[in-house]
Write a structure and sequence with these properties.
2 domains, 36% strand, elongated, 148 residues, 9 strands, alpha+beta
Amino acid sequence: MKVSNPWMKMFVLGLITLGAVVILGYYYVTAGGRLPLAGHLYTVTAQIRDPQEILKHADVRSAGVKVGSVSDLGNKVMGNTTISEIQMQLNSNVAPVYNDATVEIRQKTLVGENYIDLQRGSGAAGQVKDGGTLPLSAIRSRFRWTGS
């Protein structure tokens, strides 16, 4: 069977495929994914005594706007206590975080989903380098209501 004008049909098929890839990429990013060449994320680790059921991929917000997410959780033994280390990956537009920054775990929904509220601090205190750690003194404690 001979196909008339195969180049035009291949071009249209290519446009349809490209459109499908763009739509898929949009939904992937909207759902929280990152595209391969999207740029470098600024990484900061916070040390916390009580992680209050924070989960991996939880939001990191500053002034109510999502600026990153929790990328890793771990525990570290310091003397007689265990400290949770929460690694956050932040968008480059909120970098840098300063040494007097504060971190607070807050409740996002009524079912207990939590997020991290990050206040960047002031430039006079000096920057936390990419991959650096905020000490325990940066954590603000809040009363946690358990409903009992």
